[in-house]
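Good morning,

Both structures are done.
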Amino acid sequence: MTQIEKPTLGKNQRWIDADLASAVLPRREPGAHKWGVGAVLVIAGSPTYTGAAWLTSRAAGRAGAGIVVLASGRSVIGTVAPAIPEVVHVTLPESDTQSGAKRMLERIEEQLDRVKAVVIGPGLGDDEASEALLSALFGFGGKSLKMRDNIGFGRAIPLSARQGSDKEKTASSPIFSRQDMPVLIDADGLNWLSKQDKWHEYLPAGRAVLTPHPAEMGRLLGIDADEVLKDPVKCAMDAATTWKQTVVLKSGYTVATDGKQALIAEEAPVALATAGSGDVLAGSIGALLAQGLAPLDAAAVAIQAGIGAANLASGTFGDLGVLATDLPDAMARAMKELQ
């Protein structure tokens, strides 16, 4: 891959630093309740990637979510439940059939009225079961057109071809059917999107936060990762403008942008170059979204806290010895310093 250099700030761009993150960090009022401070639904994990569900859920809890609800298969929950007893679990059938997808969708929909944000994608895998789940959740692509007659949704139609209210426009997508609830899409959720034709036309504007690394961004755009890295800030801003969503491009000096402005990490700790660090970032952003932060503010806090966590963990284990499992607890300490 192309060597990543520290970018030079341009118009409508600024560094993410402690002052910026501290200014928007959530504060709890006396008498706060766990549901009141924000619940996040995490749809993550597969038999191959149980750790992704653990990391995302742990990070969401350490970033302040009052309730973390994990929706995953029985094999994943059997691993995560003993390790993080605070997490609420929704057991999904591990099936790629139409009836299995319907049951998965029903169990997830039961949670949507209670949560304030959704994180979908970390460690879901790339198989027929995950495709069936994602097609049902997003309301388009893959097997969804065959399934929706049974599940109860109408034929998927791109937003550009729809008429009527926002409610009507999002009715075919369960995860976007709750007014104003943000949905963070990461990892295998992004890889699935990249295989769907004109996928961004199906997403309601301003409702999604996409968190790709350069290879995932390349797949979404149909270009090589090296092309992404030639100018990550411009690439992210152009994509956010085209997609009408918030993009967090994890490219060393991580970029968060809505297309109008860009917030850029001032540091790029090498300790974050470890498997699972992206899952931690996804969970922490999701938790901050659930607490009511705007997408760019949530990303700024999570990115700055992640930098602080990496520096703290490096102080103990060195740059080469940091694991993603070290990051959620260190991130909580970094957020404490931001307070």
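Second structure follows.
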Amino acid sequence: MKIIQSFWGGKNKKLENHYGWFDYKFHWLGWMLSCHQLIKFYDHVELYTDDFGKDILINKLQLPYTKVHVVLDELNDLPNDLWAMAKIKTYSLQEKPFLHVDGDVFIFAPFPVDLLNSPLIVQNQEFTTKYYRDMWAKIHPHLKYMPKQMKNFHEESSNLAFNMGIIGGNDLDFFQSYCQCSMDFVNKNKTVWNEISLQNFNVFYEQVLLAEFSKEQNKKVDVYIQEDIGDNEYTGFGDFEDVPIKRTYLHLIGEFKKDSCTCHKLLQYCWYYNPEWIKTLFNLFLPNWIKELDFKFDKIERENLLKWYKENFAEQKISQKRLVARDLFSFEQNILFNAYEKSDDNYTITLLPEIFFSRISDSGYNLSVRDFFNDSFIRNLDEIDEVIFFELNSPKRKYELFNSLLSHFEVDLQVEDKEKLRLMLDERIKYYIGHKIISTNI
């Protein structure tokens, strides 16, 4: 089975187009990681794109696809928001078994062989909640045409969809029929495109229609992720800190790719393991920034920066060099944290110097984390956060911090409540490490 990806630039063919991401630089970096990870595990990874996509992804970013098909320019008359049509077009062109992988999907292990032998494959089944229903309620009154397969969903006797971060299989006849039905759904409503949210319409002519179409044809669809997930209830799909021990598959669906912290985790991961990619990316987008940074973009320099940061940990002066070193250091902290927790070590916790607190009211504080690209992560602190950070005015061992937290409660907690507090603290520590707020060491 061949692995395929698709990119369509639409009418807005600019490097600076965010394509739904927090920032355009992370969009292109996502493509780099997605392609390279697929190439690690599969011999044949092909790209379906337009002239713009070929210029950026192949000519400029030098992504190592085994074959490139420049076939999506014929969609250029479509509105940009009908982005899923490029995927539908790509599925329809397949003459051999395939698996399409979105450009915001990152794999860290091969897909199961049994899954790739299936007639129909998707990422996971979704159950539709009020989130999808509210979108549909604003779309369907305007439609001039609705495929018969949408009847059960429309009448709310069916509440399923499929997430298509990956989609494919061996049943090519099914895909031809489904794609034609999907394209009809879009094109026969052309006169109302300007009356509906086309961004939201993608969900229905792609994901919901696939669920209903497969059900009508009595086709079994195999899923990569076994659990059913609510349409707006995805969690953990951007947790780079859990790769590859706890997670071997990430998908920056929806809000994940719009989240500054998740995007910076992507950058941390790539810079730590593949600094040469960052050089390629910055040479294209930020050539002056590269000159100011004076970084060699190799793993030897990575180790030098890590050593320098540790030796100058307490320094308060913020520079681009320091922020890059801090990111590499924080990424490495994720690895150490997992090892500490596995061994149940009583490690020391220290606040990083690149954070600052600001009072927003008589009873509340914000925490800000300095980042490069002129970004800052800001978190509103709840009462537990404030207690933890108050206690971390000076470094503390984990068990000492836990006991300090207990002392803030006016009554003695029961055993089960203490266990809940301990688990909560573990989760907060992991979160603080991932968001470059604290460091840990034995």
